[in-house]
Amino acid sequence: MTGEIYMQKRISQIDAMKLICAFFVVTIHIVTDYRVQDGVISEHVLLGESFLRCCVPVFFMCSGYFLFLKDYSIKKIYKKLLLSLVLPTLAAILFWFVFNDAIENQNTVLGCIKNIRPESFLQLFRGLLNWDYSMVKNGFYLWFMIALIKIYIAYPVIKLLCVDEPGKNKIRRYTMLLLGISEILFPTIEGLTNNNLMLYGYSVFCDYSFLYIFLGYELYLFFRKNDIRRSWCLYGLCAYIGGSLLTYFATVFIDIPYDGMFNQLFFDYNSCFILIAAVGFFMFFRNMKFSNIQINGMISFLGQRTFVLYLVHYMVIRTMACHGVMGFMSQNLPRPVFYAGMAVLCYVLSLIAAVILHGCRRVMGKLPR
Predict the structure, then answer these.
(1) Residue 200: is its pLDDT beyond 60?
(2) Which residues lie closer than 8 Å to 161 by C-beta, 6 or more apart?
(3) Quick one: average pLDDT of 240-261?
(4) Looking at residue 115, what DSSP letter applies?
(5) Residue 326: CA count within 13 A, CB half-sphere
(6) CA torsion angle for 250, 253, 255, 258 (degrees, to 10)?
(7) Which site from 78, 165, 168, 251 is most exposed, i.e. has the minimal number of CB atoms within 10 Å?
(8) Residue 366 to residue 369: CA distance in whole angstroms
(9) How far is CA 112 from CA 102, 104, 109, in A?
(10) Which residues have a Cβ under 8 Å from the Cβ of 182 and sit 6 or more positions away?
(11) What is the Cα–Cα distance from 254 to 265, expressed in whole angstroms?
């Protein structure tokens, strides 16, 4: 069974994970504005969001799962970095930089084009050289793309650790231990003690995204040597639910009571509880069995579009918000129905846009040069 799975070009369980996590991301970026309602923190929103926060770590683990399967040359990995990450991210940054006011319903597309100033682009370019894209309104979510770019830049180094040999395995796991302590454990303890121990700032050499990449590779090694088991699926579900509930309870009983504010101490992706939920979520879905060939094909087809979906989803959300659709639905629907309905609508529209853009990219790649 294991050998059969790894002969496949794509793994349906991981594509399904990516699609669900993309939906989680869309939902988070919708409900974020409703965490506080009429000056009161909504515990219902926080509870629901606690079960969604594992999404970005799972994306990192999916990347780590596949990144080291082949011994890519530096030339090939940097070519992939440029074409698959840098250029699409730059396109999204430039789109927001030029057309933000059109999306926000404050100007027309032609008006935005007329407002272009060369000195603004020069200032943006200088910022990007320092990983600073704060000039880009509504581009905050692109931090994930920046993190992936940094990981690909470091590929020649981290590839040395991601080799299934006894010596390399020990070094990699020691590195993961250091990262886990400095980037996950210490920040969580700091949150639990309301910053009284002053543990933050003990970062070794990189951030938590590298830990999730290494975890993804460890999971690849695990499933390469072990068949899918229903019991691991159940353990994963328990870890996902447990980690999500711990995120919620720590937020409600420790974070908020400290100063009456929602400080996101346990909603950040470097929380121990979110790490537990993310690993559990991965184990749960990776141990599922998808036997229907047509469904597998559809999942794989859509799973390849999640990268583009991530790039465009917030454009769809802001368009819905600034052109009255979100306000109309929030006023005429019960809150739970509004959250779910708005998330599904934005997700479907983003997925359609991703399929179209992905298709255009493939057509452009086949044009004669």
Answers:
(1) no
(2) 168, 171, 172, 175, 214
(3) 93
(4) T
(5) 21
(6) -150
(7) 165
(8) 9
(9) 7, 11, 5
(10) 202, 203, 204
(11) 9
> Rounded mean pLDDT of the chain?
88
Q: In angstroms, rounded to a whole number, what is the distance separating the alpha carbons of residues 166 and 180?
A: 21
Per-residue pLDDT, 196? 61
The residues, ordered by sequence, that sit 6+ positions from 188 with a Cβ below 8 Å of its Cβ are 266, 270, 271, 272, 273
**Average pLDDT in the 35-61 region?**
93
Phi/psi at 37 (5° precision): -125, 120
Structure tokens at 21: 């996590």
Task: Please tell me the predicted confidence (pLDDT) of residue 9.
Answer: 60
Reading the block at residue 334, the tokens are 């019960």
**What value does the mean pLDDT take over residues 252-269?**
88
* Rg of the chain (C-alpha set): 21
The 10 Å CB-count burial string (b at 16+, else e) for 276-290 is bbbbbbbbbbbbeee
**Binning pLDDT at 50, 70 and 90, where does residue 160 land?**
very high
- Tokens 């990699």 belong to 172
Separation of alpha carbons 154 and 173, rounded Å: 18
> Smallest Cα–Cα separation from 287: which of 244, 238, 234?
234
Nearest-angstrom CA–CA distance, 100 and 242 = 40
Tokens 């009255």 sit on residue: 324
Q: Which residues pair with 219 in a beta bridge?
A: none
Amino acid identity of residue 239, one-letter, is A
Please count the residues of the chain. 369
φ/ψ (deg, to 5) at 276: -60, -45
* Per-residue tokens: 296: 């597998």
Q: Measure Cα distances from 11 to 14, 19, 46, 142, 259 in Å.
A: 6, 13, 32, 26, 46
pLDDT of residue 267: 94
CA distance 349 to 352: 5
Burial class (CB in 10 A: 0-12, 13-18, 19+), 169: middle
